[in-house]
């Protein structure tokens, strides 16, 4: 049995998918920029004799994302890893 969607529902779904596409584009742009900024901070810290990583700062980021549950914490860890770049390499 094949069910047909009513035109209004199909329009709503298309509209919502369009919004998701826009959100995905904004998220990708934000993640790319976050990565650039984070790597610039790491380079600046190392150039001034500091360490690339600041544990307390990373813990605050993880805490912020924890409002999304375990997936949020996992996302925070991924973002932090992306921002670090390859440790030991500039």
Automatic annotation (TrEMBL):
Q: Which GO terms describe its biological process?
A: chorismate metabolic process; salicylic acid biosynthetic process
Molecular function terms from GO: chorismate mutase activity
Q: Which UniProt keywords apply?
A: Isomerase
Domain (Chorismate mutase) ranges:
7-90
Q: Which InterPro entries match?
A: Chorismate_II_sf, Chorismate_mutase-related, Chorismate_mutase_highGC-bac, CM_dom_sf, CM_II_prokaryot
Membrane-crossing residue ranges in chain numbering = none
State the protein's name.
Chorismate mutase domain-containing protein
Q: Which organism is it from?
A: Mycolicibacterium sarraceniae
